[in-house]
Amino acid sequence: MKKFTWLIPLLFGLNVVFAGCDERGRQPGTRTTPSPSTTPSTSKLSDSDLEKAVWAKFENDAQLKVADLSVNADAERNEITLSGTVRSHAAREKAIELAKSAKPGVLVNDKIDVKPAA
Asked: CA distances (Å), 88 to each of 43, 98, 104, in order?
């Protein structure tokens, strides 16, 4: 028994070290998962809500309002896919910027073709 007395402080020390490593970077008393009350409301958008937000942005632009565009949103993946045809590169860039502004941090997949009027 006497030769294993050093084992108790060693195991206690290792326990403290490993517990300390687990808590690194966190403040005492903080939670690691966000509570529903602190979750931003924009993260709860559905696909159709996100699509409507993009279309609302497009409605304020004369070129995009009449353009042949399609908006497909995946709110869970935080992605918007734009497809269709516009008449200029400027209209295409405007559509991309407006879609990005519909929700902060959204990824916009650009599949818009530019076909000038004949």
From this structure: 33, 15, 26
In a domain, 11, yes or no: no
pLDDT in tens, 41-73: 445 789 999 999 999 999 999 888 888 999 999
Give the total residue count for the chain. 118
**What does DSSP assign to residue 61?**
S
User: Is 32 part of any domain?
Assistant: no
Residue 41 is encoded by which pair of tokens? Answer: 């409301």
Cα 43 to Cα 61: distance, rounded to the nearest angstrom: 26
Please answer whether residues 54 and 98 qualify as being in contact, where contact means their C-beta atoms are separated by less than 8 angstroms: yes
Q: Sheet containing 68-74: which strands, arranged edge to edge?
A: 68-74, 79-86, 107-114
**37 part of a folded domain:** no
Mean model confidence pLDDT for the chain: 79
Number of domains in the chain: 1
| pTM: predicted TM-score of the whole model, two decimal places | 0.61
Judging by DSSP bridges, how do beta strands 107-114 and 68-74 pair with one another?
unpaired
